[in-house]
Specification:
Strand content: 15-25%
CATH topology of the largest domain: Nitrilase/N-carbamoyl-D-aminoacid amidohydrolase
Number of domains: 2
Structural class: alpha/beta
Number of helices: 18
CATH architecture of the largest domain: 4-Layer Sandwich
Radius of gyration: 27 Å
């Protein structure tokens, strides 16, 4: 075949070969290499019953993702490598050897006895092609992300060669996740190698509206590669990350040929008409490793229409991520039940609803812990919510316990307020120790940003489902969940009064959040700019925010870093969540410049 210029449009002058490709977006568990191998064989068998020719699994499907510093343990790498070889043999023994299986696993660079290759023996984020009981090709991820939650450049060595496997007369190129997000590299090599299909295996974490960005990227890369592109993504929760699936196949012209559901394990099958390979497989192409497993196209067959899943609206996609994140954290860490405090307010109501949707209301323990300042309607709302969701509900008044602390220690003011929250934390942790519940912290991102929480009080717990959800989004999700219930002919789970009443911690008479904070609509706008976009004081004021309000909010955010560092993990839904996305020192006297302010250190906290 004439090579032509790599940026010229490609037109087929040769035959067409058919392939039925299966995109198996599975929910791997980090470290459960044997269990993940079983899952790979199970889903390959499912694809075989539907006459697939190629099955693609996500990045690190065999080990789970991200493995973080597990990759630095030699025994873990050895386990991954050995299980990969065993999985190829098991597939053949199960009568599945004729399918080519593409999957992600953990490998290491070959040892260079000369010592000239600095990558010698280092771990690699790898892809493998399995066929007829053997590992017929291996590929090392080229581009190693080192931003946000990713720390791969420190852990892995980068590859520099493209693997192309000829299957049923089609040259199939393989790449891994970040290789798609960077210009050039394996995508450009795919075009130069004249591959007929590019298969990209991924573990791309969920962020709000990322599906649109992802689809446009895949379309652009398919055009640049000059061939259809298969994008298979991981699904499931892993600590603070959620992988939403959303696997997709696009044609060279960007047309979507198939798209999988979000937040579901599944196997999307897409029939493709592909350009039959004509490149001499023995010819040397710099940076390309070619393997031939079958040169003859499959007999012609009638293609079947592929599923194209409809898009989700923003509230549905966020809510789905929160449910999956919590549910998988519970199941993968061996819990069966969760417990949380029910104040009657919106935050605990939304967390309880997410928990009930994730693991079933019967597995959620809701504890009302009224103090002398708890209003009657808050107690009623907590009981109403529990009845609607079918929770295991109990009431534990705390007034007597608080009085004991207050009178014994002579507590007043803020100390008296905080002891109420800490008594509640003690109760929840006692229930956890007694019955094995995972305690859920119910704070939202807005509160966490400005330190509006009590360490060892409402901040206790093993997981914080709405840690990355701003207060205004909490209200939006609550209303969406109720509306969704009505659409499905069900009773709305969250009492309307929990949504509509002014937010309050109810730790002193008549207390409301607005006593200490700007209105949440204004606060969240400032936090969006300062936390997620890293805009400074001057930028915020130029954007129209009041200088005094900006100074107040920024000071609160800066002083609360020590609290955030001690907060439980929680599902990431934004571009920049608190945690590994935003790494700031706790001990830090630098503040955003104010030309009218005389620089002086903050007083001791």
């Amino acid at each position: 075949m004439a090579q032509g210029h790599p940026n010229e449009p490609r037109t087929s002058l040769y035959g067409v070969a058919q392939l039925r490709v299966a995109l198996a977006q599975i929910n791997s568990v980090v470290g459960d290499i044997a269990g993940n191998a079983d899952r790979i064989i199970e889903w390959t068998a499912r694809a075989a019953t539907r006459d697939a020719h190629l099955v693609a699994f996500p990045e690190m499907a065999l080990t789970g993702y991200p493995v973080e510093d597990l990759a630095l343990r030699p025994a873990f790498v050895d386990d991954s490598r050995a299980t990969l070889t065993a999985t190829a043999a098991r597939l053949a023994d199960a009568g599945l050897g004729e399918l080519m299986v593409v999957l992600g696993y953990l490998d290491r660079m070959p040892v260079d006895p000369t010592g000239r290759d600095l990558r010698s023996g280092r771990p690699i984020d790898a892809a493998a092609c399995l066929h007829r009981g053997r590992v017929v090709a291996r590929y090392a991820k080229h581009h190693l992300p080192n931003y946000g939650v990713f720390d791969e450049y420190r852990i892995f060595a980068a590859g520099d060669e493209l693997s192309v496997v000829r299957l049923h007369g089609v040259d199939v190129a393989v790449a891994v996740c970040e290789d798609l997000w960077q210009e050039g590299g394996p995508v450009a090599s795919t075009r130069l190698a004249r591959a007929g299909l590019l298969v990209v295996i991924n573990a791309s974490p969920y962020e709000r509206n990322k599906d649109d960005v992802r689809l446009e990227l895949v379309r652009r890369r398919a055009e640049q590669a000059g061939c259809p592109l298969v994008y298979v993504n991981l699904v499931g929760g892993q600590d603070e990350l959620v992988f939403d699936g959303d696997s997709v196949v696009v044609a060279t012209n960007g047309k979507v040929l198939g798209r999988a559901n979000r937040y579901e394990e599944g196997c999307l099958l897409v029939d493709l008409d592909l350009e039959q390979a004509t490149v001499d497989p023995t010819a040397l192409t710099p940076g390309v490793n070619r393997v031939v497993v079958s040169s003859e196209p499959v007999p012609a067959y009638v293609p079947k229409p592929a599923r194209i899943a409809p898009p989700l609206d923003e509230e549905a996609e966020i809510y789905g991520a929160l449910v999956m994140g919590l549910g998988d954290y519970v199941r993968k860490n061996g819990f069966r039940t969760v417990a949380l405090g029910l104040s009657g307010g919106i935050d605990s109501a939304l967390v309880a609803t997410i928990a009930a949707d994730a693991i079933g209301g019967a597995n959620v323990v809701g504890v009302s812990m009224p103090s002398e300042y708890s209003s009657g309607h808050s107690r009623e709302d907590a009981a109403d919510l529990s009845e609607r969701l079918g929770l295991r509900y109990q009431v534990q008044p705390i007034a007597t316990m608080v009085d004991l602390f207050r009178d014994t220690l002579g507590l007043t003011g803020l100390a008296e307020e905080n002891v109420q929250a800490r008594v509640r934390g003690v109760i929840l942790m006692a229930l956890s120790n007694t019955d094995g519940h995972l305690v859920l912290a119910t704070g939202n991102k807005s509160e966490l940003a400005v330190g509006y929480s009590t360490i060892y009080g409402d901040a206790v717990g093993g997981f914080a489902p709405i840690k990355d959800v701003h207060k205004t989004t909490v209200w939006r999700l609550a209303r969406w969940r109720n509306d969704d219930a009505v659409r499905r002919g069900e009773r709305p789970p969250i009492p309307a009064s929990s949504i509509d009443k002014p937010p309050s911690a109810e730790l002193r008479p008549g207390q409301q959040d607005s006593d200490s904070l700007p209105p949440y609509e204004l606060l969240d706008d400032i936090l969006d700019d300062y936390v997620e976009l890293d805009r400074g004081r001057a930028d915020l004021i130029r954007a129209g925010f009041d200088a005094q309000t900006v100074d107040h909010v920024l000071r609160l955010v800066d002083l609360a870093e020590y609290k955030r560092r001690q907060y439980p993990p929680g599902t990431k839904i934004s571009f920049k969540a608190f945690g590994r996305d935003r790494r700031l020192p706790i001990t830090n006297r630098w503040r955003e410049p104010d030309p009218d302010r005389v620089a002086e250190p903050d007083p001791a906290r």
